[in-house]
Structures are given as C-alpha cells and as structure tokens.
Amino acid sequence: MKKRGQFITSCLALMVLMTVALVGCGSNNNTSTNATEAPATTEATATTEPAAKKPTVAFVYIGPPGDGGYTYQHDQGRLYMEKELGIKADFVENVPESADAERIITELAQSHDIVFTTSFGYMDFTLNVAGKFPNVKFLHASGYKTAENMGTYFGKNYQASYLSGIAAGKMTKNNQLGYVGAFPISEVIYNLNAFTLGAQSVNPDVKVNVVWTNTWYDPTTERQAAISLLDKGADVLLAYQDSPATLQAAAERGAFAGGNDSDMSKYAPDNYLTNPVWNWGPYYVKAVQAVMDGTWKSEQYSGDMADGMVELAPFGNKIPDDVKKLVEDAKAKIISGELEVFTGPISDNQGNVKVQEGQKLTLEEVLGMNWLVKGVEGTIPQ
C-alpha cells in the first residue's frame, strides 16, 4: 500500500529571560500519530512506490473441497497459491457441467482477473465466456480448446497410472484386475490403458475388467461398480473417481485397491495399493505470477512426474518391499525420460496394432485416445 508521509512545521522561537526555548508545533495526517522534530521552516515528506496490484482470482469446482479426491487437490493448490502470493482467492463448489456453469463463470468474470475452471466439462462454457471478457484470463483444466485469453493445463497422470499398474500386476493372485472408470472420455481411457500396460509389464497374463459409472463423485454408484468387479473375481481395483468408495468396498472383501487424485490410504491402510496424485499448487503460483508480471500468454501446459505436477501416493501398509522397488525403479526411468508409457508395440483389444514396435505416441495422440489396449475386457460406450 502507498504510505502517506508525515510533515513537520517548526514554530517561531521566542527568547524569554535569557533562556532559549524552542516550541515545536507538529502537524500530521490521519494515518499516523507520531511527530518527528525537524529544523525550523523545513518540511519533510516520505513516499514509497505503490506495490503492484494483485489480481483477483476465482476457481470453479466440480465437487466439494472435502471430497478427498480431485477437487480436494485443486483446493490444496489454491491454498498453496494464496500462501505463496498473499492472494485470497474465491471459489464456487459443486458446479455442474451444464449451462449453469456458463452462468457462474460469467458472474465470476465480472469481478475477477483470473478464473480457473477445473473440470473437463467446463471447456466450451469457459471458451464462450472468454470471448465476452477479453481482459480476463481463463485457465481450463484437462481441455484442449484455447483462445487469446484462455489457456489449458493438465498433466501426464497416466505416468502414475502406469506405476499403479505395476503394483497391481504384482499384487494380484488370480491375474484379474478391475478398473472403475468415471466417464468414457479420453482422459479416463488413456489412464485405464496406462494402468493395464503397467500391469502387463510385470505380469503378461493379467486382465483388466472395466465398469463405467458416469460419475466423478457418487459414492453409492461407485461402490456398486466396485462390488460388481469383485464379484467377477477381481482382487485388485483402481478407480478414477473422487470418492474412496472403491477402496472401502475392496477392503471389505480383503482385496487391494487404489483411488485417484490424492492419497486415500487413511480410508483402508491395510488394503491400500497406491494411485496417481495431483500437485496443482506450483502451477497455480506460476500462472498467477505470470499475470502479475505481465508475461502470461495462452498455452496448453502439460505437467508430469519430472516437474512434480504428477505424483504417486505412498504405498499401503502391506505392499512388499520388492514391489515398491519395482515401482520406484520404473518411476526413475519415467522421470529421466528413459521410459515412455505408450511405446510400441501396442495393440487394441480388438487385435489391431495401434503403435508399431519402437514408435511412441505423441502427447496429442495420447490426449485423443479412443481405443482400449489388449488385455482390457470391456468396451467404450458410444
């Protein structure tokens, strides 16, 4: 804040009975109660340059911050940004991926400089609002559409899904794994495929059965889906939703499971596998700081395990050391670039070669994935 200076006006000196007395009459403004002595007839002022204006920031959440999963991790990122930059951000939770989202994004754009929309289904609504507010910066998570004042951000969470698959492939007793898929969109498909490839890298005989819930956070539906997979014989599950329902259902059957987005070990530590974890905070600091510095530009940012946006949750209590070592060794190769998850040969579950031996899918090809790898038992609903 700009600080207002104080000034002092010295009054005339009077000589009385050979004794010199200087009487200082101070005058100041309303921001201070202190007076400082100064030479007669001298006025002192002190000013400082105003601090750079901090932008107003808002977040749009698909679920509640207390979901323990995806929205929780975004909210932790918001809190990290607030602490690092001294900015208090606003947020709106439980915003459906419908026309109601466009209304809320529009309202936030009227009073904020930066708006983060954190779910895939907000993409077109964010783009529409961005066109109406060219002076506001919009950043959309997991999408692929951009504008001059709208960028996207996400990360290669499939790297951590691959590592989770390695753990699952070693922990299964009957080579039957289960995957509770959220929506049949590319983001979930390529994570399912990465999980399967990771499991196959240590256990070629493994099969992965998938059930789609069409939910991000619905513990009842997700629990039912997990139970259906357990009933089919799966003894290790991974889920791509925000609730711990899959893990809890697996624990009741003595099976292992992992969730998504954050460390869910507290819900069933003895039955916990591991799972991908998001770390959004550093990106939020980087993006907001760029706006403050005047260097922000629209881009499609993709973080990974090397830059820390994507992490792997700690292992559960009963994961053996040899399994941990296999995963950690693969993780080191992913971070160094030696291991690329989608490197051929890779075939789909219909027998078609999708990636030739020695070839690697580009990030664009991964993000547009609409097929299931060999070993996945299930289909993509149309």
Order of helices and strands: EEEEEHEHEHEEHEHEHEHEEHEEHEEHE
Percentage beta strand = 15-25%
Spatial strand sequence of the major β-sheet: 6-5-7-8-9-15
The total beta strand count reads: 19
> What is the residue-averaged pLDDT?
89
Radius of gyration over all CA atoms, rounded: 29 Å
**What is the 3D form?**
globular
Distance between the termini: 56 Å
- Any low-confidence stretches, pLDDT <50, length ≥5? 1-49
Biggest beta sheet summary: 6 strands, parallel
- Percent helix, as a range, is 25-40%
Brief summary:
The chain has 10 helices and 19 strands. With 382 residues, the protein is α/β, with parallel strands linked by helices.
Topology summary:
Elements: E1 7-8, E2 14-16, E3 19-21, E4 26-27, E5 57-60, H1 70-85, E6 90-92, H2 99-109, E7 114-117, H3 123-132, E8 137-141, E9 150-155, H4 158-171, E10 176-181, H5 186-202, E11 207-212, H6 219-231, E12 236-239, H7 245-252, E13 256-258, E14 276-278, H8 281-293, E15 300-303, E16 310-312, H9 321-336, E17 346-347, E18 353-355, H10 363-367, E19 376-377
Parallel strand pairs: 5-6, 5-7, 7-8, 8-9, 9-15, 10-11, 10-12, 11-19, 12-13
Antiparallel strand pairs: 1-4, 2-3, 14-16, 17-18
Helix pairs in contact: 1-8, 2-3, 4-5, 4-9, 6-7
